Amino acid sequence: MKNLKTQLKINNCKNGYIAITVLILMMVLVSVVYLFSNAVFSELAIARNNKGAQISFSLAEAGVQEAIYRVQHDSTTRNNFINTTSGVSNFSHNPALVNNGAYSVTIQNTSRGVATVTSVGTYTMGLKTARREIKLDIAQAIQLIYPYDGAIYASGSGAGSSIADIDIWGASLNIYGGSLLANRDINLKFGANVNIEKAVEAGDDVVMQMASSLDCNCLINDDGDPLTPQCSPSPGCTPLEGALPKTMPQIDFEAYKTVAKNTPGESPTGSQYFANANDFLNLVPIGGSKTFNGVVYVDDNLDINFGRTINMNGVLAASQTIDIIWGQVNMAPPSGGGASGIFTQKNLKLWGLGNFDGTGLIYAGDRLETLFSVGLTTNLTGGIIARRTWVNGFRTINIYFDSAVINTALGDPTDTPVIELNHWEEEY
Hints:
This protein is of the alpha/beta class. The chain folds into two domains: 12-143 and 419-427, no CATH class; 150-222 and 229-410, no CATH class. The protein has helices at 2-73, 75-83, 253-261, 277-281, 403-410, and strands at 88-93, 101-111, 114-125, 128-141, 150-154, 164-169, 172-176, 179-182, 185-189, 193-196, 200-202, 206-208, 213-215, 240-241, 273-274, 289-298, 302-304, 308-318, 322-324, 327-332, 341-344, 348-351, 355-401, 418-427. The strands form two sheets. It has a 19-stranded parallel beta sheet that branches. Strand 1 (88-93) and strand 2 (101-111) form a beta hairpin. The longest helix has 72 residues, at 2-73. It is elongated and about 130 Å long.
C-alpha cells in the first residue's frame, strides 16, 4: 500500500513537469509564430506602402506631364499661362490610369509665361491612401533674337533727299521703357517733340532743327510727388553718336506663309493665305470691321482703305507694300498666345486717316512711313523694326517697349512653345 502511494506521487510529479514543459514549449512556439507573423505582416505593409508610394508618385508625374501638354496645346490653359500674371488653371482625373488612382493639378502663374505646377497623386488601398505631391516651376522659353532695347530700331540708309535712318518731322513721339536706335542718322525737324525713357543712339549724327526738342534718360510719367522726383523739369538729352551698327533681325516670311496656308479661312483656297489682295479685302466690309485669328498672309500689295477696320488677333503679313490709307488695324496676341503685329517685306505706310493700334511688332523690310496725318494718336505695345522710319505729320505716337512681344514675333511661328523645367521637389 505504501509502495502504491509512493508510485502515484512519483507519477503525479512527472505529469506536472510534463505539463509545465508543454506549456513552456507552447509559449515559445506561440511567440515564434507571433514574431514571424508580425515580420510577415510588416513586410506586407512595407510592400503595400512602397507600391502605393510608387503608384501615387507616378500619378503625380502624370499630372505634371498633362499640365505641360495643356500649356503647350490647350488654348485656354496656354492663354492663361502666357497672358496673365496671377491666373490659375485646375484639372483632375479620378480614376486616373489605374483603379483607385487619381491626380489633381494646379497651374499657378507668378508672372506672364511663368508658373508653378503643383500635382498631387493619390492611390487608395483599402482604408489607407498613399499621397505624393510634386511642385515644378515652368517658364516659356523665348529665344533672345532681339537683344536691344530699341522701341524703334532702324538699320539702313534712307532714301530721297535724306540719308537718315529715322526722321521725325513735326510729330510727337513718346517711348516708355525703351530707346531710340539707328545705325545712321536721326533727324528731328519742324518742331518734333521726342521723349525717350532710356537713351538715343545713332551710328552717325543726331540732328535737331526748327524748334525740335529731345528729352531722354527719365521717366515720362512723373507721379508729381516732389519727394520722389522721377525726372527734372528740363531733362534734356545727351544722345550717343557714333555707336557701333547693330544687326537688323530678319523675319522668316516663308514660315509665316506656311502657317497661313495651313490655317482654315475664307479665301478661295480655304486658308488664310491670299495670293490676291482683293480676295482678302472682300472679306472686310467697306466702313465695317472683320476679325481674324492666327496668321493672315497676303502675297500682294495691300491697300487698307474705305474705312475698313481689321481686328488682327495674330499677324497680318504681306510680301509687298502695305498702305493703310483710310482704315484701322487693331493688333492683339492670339487667344492661346503667340506672335502679333504687322509684317511686310517692303514698305508700311500710314496715310491720312490710316492708323494701327494695340500689341505687336511693326516690321518693315524697307520703310515705315506716316504721311499727311493730323491729330491722330497711335498706341503700340511692342516695338518697331524697319530699315528706315519716317514719321511725318502732326501725329502722336506712344510706344510701350516690350521685348517679349518682339522676340515672340521674330521666332519661328511653326515651333511649339518650349517650356523650361527649372526644378522639382517631392513632398510626403
